[in-house]
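Structure tokens please, single chain.
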Amino acid sequence: MLDESLLDLVRRNFPQIAEKALQEEIATVGKLTEFSAGTVIMDVGQYVKLVPLVIEGAIKVLREDEDGHELFLYYLQGGETCSMSFTCCMMNKKSEIRTIAEENTRMIGIPIRYVDEWMTKYQSWKNFVMQTYDYRMMELVRTIDSIAFHHMDERLLAYLDKKAKATNSKIINATHQEIAYDLNASREAVSRLLKQLENDGQLKLGRNKIELK
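Here you go.
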């Protein structure tokens, strides 16, 4: 049954999904879900059941290696979706990423059986999926470039900047250990660099929080 409130959310947050029939299908089969900050939405090794259309909030996307070390990839924000979810559901493979609600988040979950079907049925859905792939590919290239070519202080500043933009706040609530996990670095190195950046006047350290200048 078509949910009028969902239909309104789709139209306001995803204008690129332009076809009326597609909007109505999403409002009929989609499920509005909410996650509090810190909740693991999708974990490594799980099968993807729903593709997320993020309405508000922010979702952190992480990669995990065979030894359990995490690496931050990117954030999902309102009006976006996850290209990794498309790949997993189309190929019926287990997730190789972990997604965590960075702050209280609302999203519309689309059952995976519709993802491939809509690719041939609706041009705007196909465009949306391809644009998502293109944007995330460039995001991953920037992440690889950061690891390969940038010093740790540059990576740390870029990470803090992304986190601030994702939460729309210059106050970052995170421990040094949490940041170290995301950057696949040691806590000691992160703490030393944060102190150096504070001395340089680029940020101010507090108890489990960082204020960007």
